[in-house]
Amino acid sequence: MAASQSSSAVGNTNIMLAIFEKKTNTVDLYRPLRNYIAFHYSEREAQNLEDDLQTLKQLRSDLERHSDPSLPARRDLFITYFKALCQTETRFPISSEPDHVNALTFVWFDAFKPKQKASQQNIHLEKGAVLFNLAAVYSQIGLTFDRNTVDGRRQASHAFMAAAGSFGFLRENASMKISVGSSTTLDLSVECAGMLEKLMLAQAQECVFENTIAKGSTPGVCAKISRQVGLYYEEALAALNVAPLSQHFDKSWIVHVQLKTAIFYAEACYRYGLELHEKEEIAEEIARLKSAVSVLTEAKKNSRGAAAQLLDAINKLEVNINRNLERAVKENDRVYLMRVPPASSLSPLPAFAMVKPMVMSEVLDASKEKMFASLVPDNSAKALSRYTEMVDGIIRTQAEKLQQASELTRVRLREMELPDSILALEGNFTLPTNLKEDVEAVQISGGPAGLESELQQLKDLRRVNQELLVQTEELLQKESREDAQFRSQFGTKWTRPQSSTLTKNLLDRLNRFAGNLKQAAESDARIERSVREHAALMAILDARPIESALPSLARPIMSFDQNEDAIVGSLKQSLRQLETLGAQRAGLEDMLREMKRKDDILPKLMTSTGSYEDLFKKEIAKYDHISEDIAQNIEAQEQLLLQIQVCLYLDTLVNSLLHTRKKYVATI
């Protein structure tokens, strides 16, 4: 324990505590880890990781030797080494198991009972001790600032909050793991880390209180902040007074925290009493001040071994409280004549916390560190594969939704003959690009006249093929007759195989060709018949440009009402909105692919010491926002399609009613 003091507007009450670092024995990390790499991976891998092994070795050596005595450098060393340990933990199983790194034993001594030590063959003790020392250094940094200045008190408060955050991180992430080891020390326990966290918060809040007094804040504000200082000290004192910590700390620790608790309770009563006096609530003021005097009197009974500055602060505060109490009693006896309530009936003093532990998860995040990056254990590789499958499933599902939405729009609009009907009505209808290219290809080939020429060529080719087929058939028949003649003439001397055997394959192929020619002739006949039937319609293919031959839809045919323009305008606006939604879907699909490309959680898997399921759940949540955007896009499209359908229905209904009215008028 180290102490520091400075004078302030509230006297010498601000003597504060810092924690000494834990001590350790020398450990050789290099050789056991290198042997593990060479045995389980390869000698080449061990050579490739030589720099990382040397870096880790140097960090441990600097930790042991205090190579740079400055506190900021010491703080940075502990942070860097802790991150390196996180990388080491996920790649090297350190224990007494035969297949593990079993030649490493970490030894650390208790910070408050240096003769007691913990010795474990696991990395949890090493990480916990480093966290403890990081918190200790932060507390020592807090004592280095000049708390006679506003900025000095602010910096000191931040340092104590960092110390509280480090002790809290130790309590939440390492203490329980250390406690299951073969030997432990109490300074790394959940109880001790929790007590030190509250002590550091109390000192951080105390710095804020000093600044509040220096700024001349109202008594009510000062009372709330002072009371919170006392509450933090009360929590630390409660932990110190019970097992297992009650017999572990020096008596001076308990006395110090006990006096601080009393001082800041009394200070809160004193400041609150000033506010009550201004409100002329004299009875409660008297009760509060009497309670403060009682607490200070009781604290002084157990003040043996306390720092002289604290005793002096108690005496000065007691003088101020008694002076105000005497004044309040006289005024009450002479003027107010109020009944003073008993202390037990008073409500708790209001408190306001101005500090909180620093969030150390970001400071100590090792997910972006590159040490031992090439070593990927089998369990991490399997976890990465599983996560990749989960992401692929999300991407596939969302991409299918986007594609189905686009296809649905195309089909529904086609059923409603949109936007073709509107384009025809306005007389500026254009052919789709693919269709226009096909028409141009037909025109280049000669149009309908060129088609007639090709039909004639088909007839000529069919005639030639038929003639070749007949000639071939006649040759085969001739060969068969000659074979029969020679076989009859020469008898057994004619040893050549029979013609039917030699020409069997040729006859089979000839029959297939004959069948194909017959089918082709029938197909050609159907095509020619279709061309003749649609000759008049096909004549428009000669029009240049082809758009000049397209029919236009006259307005009277479509509507008999002057509201037609409004309906058409509404339809066009809805179609433009559909087009915008389609463009958004294309962008969302690109965004999905880009998110997947950048989604590399291997570093987080390698540094994770918790459940993979929790990590997966957190990482997969990244895709929730874009999934919601896709759902909203599809829902907006459904609303637009429904709106378009309603417009068309209303247009049809109005036209029907107008047509009926015209017929009725004509009849009359």
Automatic annotation (TrEMBL):
<dbReference type="GO" id="GO:0005768">
    <property type="term" value="C:endosome"/>
</dbReference>
<keyword id="KW-0967">Endosome</keyword>
<dbReference type="Pfam" id="PF13949">
    <property type="entry name" value="ALIX_LYPXL_bnd"/>
</dbReference>
<feature type="coiled-coil region">
    <location>
        <begin position="451"/>
        <end position="478"/>
    </location>
</feature>
<feature type="coiled-coil region">
    <location>
        <begin position="279"/>
        <end position="327"/>
    </location>
</feature>
<dbReference type="InterPro" id="IPR025304">
    <property type="entry name" value="ALIX_V_dom"/>
</dbReference>
<keyword id="KW-0963">Cytoplasm</keyword>
<dbReference type="InterPro" id="IPR038499">
    <property type="entry name" value="BRO1_sf"/>
</dbReference>
<dbReference type="Pfam" id="PF03097">
    <property type="entry name" value="BRO1"/>
</dbReference>
<feature type="domain" description="BRO1">
    <location>
        <begin position="14"/>
        <end position="409"/>
    </location>
</feature>
<dbReference type="InterPro" id="IPR004328">
    <property type="entry name" value="BRO1_dom"/>
</dbReference>
<feature type="coiled-coil region">
    <location>
        <begin position="39"/>
        <end position="66"/>
    </location>
</feature>
<protein>
    <submittedName>
        <fullName>Putative BRO1 domain, ALIX V-shaped domain-containing protein</fullName>
    </submittedName>
</protein>
<keyword id="KW-0175">Coiled coil</keyword>
